[in-house]
Design brief:
Chain A is an alpha/beta fold and 435 residues long. Chain A is 29% helix and 23% strand. In chain B, α1 crosses α5 (140-154), α1 crosses α12 (288-307) and α5 (140-154) packs across α6 (172-183). The chains are: A alpha/beta (435), B alpha/beta (320). The A-B interface holds A 132, 137-144, 165, 168, 171-172, 174-175, 227-228 and B 193-195, 199, 210-211, 233-239, 241-242, 245-246.
Chain lengths: 435, 320
Amino acid sequence: MSGRRQLFRGARLIDPESGRDGPGDLLVEGDRIVALGANLAGNGDAEIIDCGGLCLAPGLVDMRVQLREPGAEHMESVESGGHAAAAGGVTTMVALPNTEPPVDDVSVVEFLARRAREVKLAKIHSYAAATKGLNGRELTEIGLLAANGAVGFTDGVKAIADALVMRRVLAYARSFDQLIIQHPEEPSLGHAGEVTEGEIATRLGLAGITPMAEVIMIERDLRLVEITGARYHAAHVSTAEAVAAIRRAKAAGLPVTCDTAPPYFVLNETAIGDYRTFAKLSPPLRSEADRGAVVAGLADGTIDAIASDHAPWDQDSKRLPFSSASCGIVGLETLLPLALELYHGGHLALIDVLRRMTINPARILGLAVGRLASGAPADLLLFDPDRAWHIRPDEFRSKSKNAPFDGRPTRGQVMRTIVDGRTIFARDLSGGAPR
Amino acid sequence: MQPYAFRHRHLLGIEGLTSDDVDHVLDLADGYVELSRQPEKKRALLRGRTLINCFFENSTRTRTSFEVAGKRLGADVINMAVAVSAMRKGETLIDTAMTLNAMRPDVLVVRHPESGAVQLLSEKVDCAVINAGDGSHEHPTQALLDALTIRRRKGRLGGLTVAICGDILHSRVARSNIALLNVMGARVRVVAPRTLLPAEIERLGVEVFHDMTAGLKDVDIIMMLRLQLERMHGSFVPSTREYFHFFGLDYEKLKLAKPDALIMHPGPMNRGVEIGSEVADDIDRSLIRHQVEMGVAVRMACLEILGRDLGSDSNGPAIE
């Protein structure tokens, strides 16, 4: 009954859950990790993979990804998104429900699970909509959706704006111990704006959103979490005030977590430069002070997770006047190198950068992945933390190329990605194109 | 030993009643159950008295039940349906009360969509007032008829474990039953999704459960409440399908209760929403139709108790 054996020899094993960081071997049998340690024997029949001292870590768990299937497969499909994830070292990703139709019905959750099984690349889980049709009014079948595989509930890139609806969503989800993920932006302060208000917005003549729109929504939600006791997660936190509010809530013992995405710690609002729509995000890029606060929030653990916030858009959605352009960037294939800037910049230890993309999101989502341990799924990432390269969006496997990082020099590259013992990506270092 | 006396002029709620009060009503009602099963069902106790059913909210079964009860005791029963749209708060209600009062009824049976409205009206009239349901506050005769139903089947109320399941938030039946069962020494549980539970409900003396599996374990009585579909959909619970899956009573969930657990529902039922038809119609387990029969007897008992004092009250000087 034992499956194929693979021995990863001579690696630097990094497991944020246990704190292990040192040289060692790792033995995989079938789809499971069966042993970790020094000088493991492969028992003859095992395939030996020489890691050459590179880092072997749990595959990345990306808790915020938009796949455009069903509905807009020309921008991204489960398959193209799966290849992008594989190239990015992501072995588990969670898709937002803002598809067409939205994931507000059990049948759509099951559809996505089936597509992921057929494609057999990275593992895909879905969030389901918190409200029907993402309309912000009526609750979805949270109990049935959770029983059929939804790992959390959110209205995706829309805030759950109405306080009473949010209260009921939280209270109802609490009955089923489900996680609610908020896009934290008070829409009445944000709907006219496309950039953070301030000098740059003023000079460009763009309608600004006050950065306080984020903390206003988070503070409101935290009060509702106090009443309901529900598990709450704030997505892509981007301002100093929001980080501070969540820090206080955690100190007070509320069941609150949050993530951020690489643009919010590697870029600031100046990246929009001369109306660069590829740098148009929701929430918008912030001031340098806010960027610094996000880095500090990551360093002290206030920000639990780093997600790619992968938002694929075709050229037609981005090659538009700034205020008409869609929000978001593709992120799966740049998640690791951009996150590693925190390590190379001396802000976080390597193991702590990885912690925010492995065991932390896995725990928030209640998924049994994100760890190197005997018996755990063999979802692995082999990477070189120092290898220098330039980001080239036209080489992305994602169907969409909307990233403001073209030509950006970066360090740290995925060498091999393994899901359930299957290699789904391996970089060809002989000079040819990666297979 | 002092003879028992019911010390209230009105029956506005269970809150404030003693276990002696409840026992007394139920003892009288037992007699009226027997009477109502005779071919000749009439007593002359309230002959010459006027009972006005004053319903500011639609009702068929409660109004009819009071009408039958009043007529069996010999009273003249008048049904007055007040269009809700014509009614506003405060002064208008008081004006209506004064108008009714001028007709010199002996008993007013009042239902009103707003909590506290029946008490307000009772303060403005000279006759006895029975609350037939005010908003989400109290529905005392429903709790009494439920108690009679349980007592006749189980022989007691004290020591039983009763689970009240469903829309506790909007339910006056739940509040009256919680009060009554507590005063009689039963253990009360409420089982509902958090969106259908009012804040700090545990302070009313109940154990709170959010899933039927734990909530129904080893209970003697399961009281299902009506899900008010017209205002529920999407806002308090996502769908009737999901509600039935997690909170609807079927045999699967019934198995968790004691083997001799009995099922109640104040009606009208939404079959397939809060209760499955096969469970609702199970003659060994469901008391739902008994509840309706007990309703008439309990209301006769309430009318008798309040009617005892009418003699002194109604013999005041005539107004010119």
